[in-house]
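Table S2 (text version). Query chain:
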Amino acid sequence: MQLHPAFIFLGGLVVILLGAEVLLRGAQRLATLLGVPPVIIGLTVVTVGTTMPELAVSVTAAQQGQSGLSVGNIAGTNVFNILVILGLSAVVRPIPLRLLSFKLDVPVMIGAALALIVMAWDGVLSQADGMLLLIGALSYTLALVLLSRRESPAMRREFAEEFGRDTVTAAPGDALPRSRWVRGAWYLGLLLFGIAVTLLGAQLLVSGAVSLARAFGVSDEIIGLTIVAMGTSAPELATTVVATLKDDRDVAIGNLVGSCIYNILVILGVSGLVAADGVTVVRDVLWIDLPLAAAVAILLLPVFHSGDNVSRREGALFVGIYGLYLGSLLALRT
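Corresponding structure-token output:
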């Protein structure tokens, strides 16, 4: 008896999210054990960890020749992250903007989104494009690490409370005691296990998504822009919801914006490298969805510089824009 594609898709989504959580825990605790400051863990390790579902799906889709799903997933995820997750969070409670990294994140997000459009203009993200995107990711990460040293003591405490619990840090240059070596091996094992489970989930999710697209007569990119994008955004959504309920969202929103940057620079960079003939970017995604993702990034610039918070009115505007986008997507392109 063959399972319905919807069950394969949902099963893959559950597996990939569980794998990403295990991977994130392993990476976070291993970094803390090695003495990496919590503020750097929050801005880099956790941000990269929450993008693992998108990475696994996009790379798997690119390797299997489903380029529409690969690029559509990233474009849809970035639009969903900003317009829906950040927007709904602001509607519930205005979002304070105290992280220094926002001054770096928004311009980099705009630059990455515009660079992606330029690279995809010929309809293909080549291996050379992928390498350039990864170089950009490395440069951005180094800039974040340098900027983190200038964060206020209060912000460092917030990161320490969020990412330094129940872990033991080693002083720089100290050899790890044997018990720490054991813990380090355990955390490394968690990290590797999480990667394996995430990749397995990605295989199932991509298989189910492609079968669903064929069953409903829609393109891979539409599936990527909608249900795959929403599903792989679950870690960011969960983190932001919990932070909103705790009224402690500087870290969560910083990771949300940072995830959008890594989605472009790392995920599409790796996807371009692993696809022998590059990643094909279909006309609709190039002319509609990638420009929308860039426009959303540009929209953040005046919002983040209009005051010390994202207001409820601005959050409602974001959600309304996404509603119009989703409605037009379903009405005109399916």
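Notes on Table S2: The beta strands are 95-96, 124-125, 279-280, 309-310. Confidence is low (pLDDT under 50) at residues 166-174.
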